[in-house]
Amino acid sequence: MTRFSAARMSAARMVVLFTMVLVAAGVLSAGPAAADPPAPPGTPTATSFDGISTVGPLFRGGLDQRHSCTASVVASPRHDLLLAAAHCVSGTAAGWKFAPGYDGGRTPYGVWTVTHAYVDSRWSDGQDPQHDYAILQVAHQVIDGRDEGIEDVTGANILALAPRSGEPITDVAYNSGIGDQPIRCTTTVYDTDGYPSFNCHGYVGGSSGSPWLSTVPGTHETFVQGLIGGLHQGGCYEYTSYSPAFHLDVYRLLLRATFGVHPDTVPQAGSDGC
């Protein structure tokens, strides 16, 4: 199951409705519903938990509306940047809300407002799935009389290169909804035509952008080595997820966002090819 945005989910419902009309009219014949291929043996299942401070859902409207994608706080000099999937972003993203640690509708680390979006030119020009990542800047807040960036409140994950096949990662995600809890799964990475991949049941619409996390050896720090996105905008089946392979380009984007150079107006994502 692909990680549809809310708009693309509505389009999908329209296709289903149109197909049902054709079936009723006798233009198409009804048949058994196509099922996903079976998952590989031993595929784990993600479980709900009460969340972590650096990961949260993105709300295009207010928190009384459904969230549609996941983002995470990434370490930066101004303490004000998020990592997300580019296919989740459209326009400038200004005014979108991010709720780190969101848990059952609670916002223990506040609600932060997106001001700018940055994507690689290979995404904005051709939607290259290997560059399906975005950096979002969020506004500082005055807390107890001090000017604070989001990282000052939540901490942050350190941007790192793509994991190798055989390495473990933990993905923390919010499936599309409202008043819900995040899910997480620790599993092993493998390669699919140059895209880091993992198998775990439970990642559906809304999980796009969720970070692939690993512990920095000998420290209390956490790397972010990928996110759900890339090939087929994250995957066609709920048990297989992909990531763009993080190389030097992702650091260049982080650097551009750090200095606030030329924020982007991001085009709407096209088909995921599923």
Structural overview:
With 274 residues, the protein is an alpha+beta fold. It has one domain (47-259): Thrombin, subunit H (Beta Barrel). Helices cover 15% and strands 27% of the residues. The protein has a six-stranded mixed beta sheet with strand order 1-12-11-15-16-10, with no helix packed on it. A six-stranded antiparallel β-barrel has the order 2-3-4-7-6-5. A three-stranded antiparallel beta sheet has the order 13-14-17, with no helix packed on it. Residues 4-33 have low confidence and may be disordered.
Secondary-structure topology with pairs:
Layout: H1 6-24, E1 47-48, E2 55-59, E3 69-74, E4 81-84, E5 97-98, E6 112-119, H2 121-126, E7 134-138, E8 141-143, E9 146-148, H3 150-154, E10 158-159, E11 168-173, E12 183-188, E13 190-192, E14 195-199, E15 211-215, E16 222-227, E17 240-242, H4 248-259
Parallel strand pairs: 10-16
Antiparallel strand pairs: 1-12, 2-3, 2-5, 3-4, 4-7, 5-6, 6-7, 8-9, 11-12, 11-15, 13-14, 14-17, 15-16
